[in-house]
Write a structure and sequence with these properties.
The radius of gyration is 13 Å and the shape is elongated. It has one domain. It is mainly alpha-helical and 36 residues long.
Length: 36
């Protein structure tokens, strides 16, 4: 299933890359909140 594939990708991702992704998502969310 797509969900399982996504989980597999996240698990296989290096921790640093995962952290960067999370930070980018957080920044995008913050910008989105400021626009409202």
């Amino acid at each position: 299933s797509p969900l399982l594939d996504a989980v597999k990708i996240v698990v296989e991702m290096p921790l640093i890359e995962l952290t960067v992704c999370v930070l980018e998502l957080f920044e995008d969310y913050h910008k989105y909140r400021q626009l409202k």
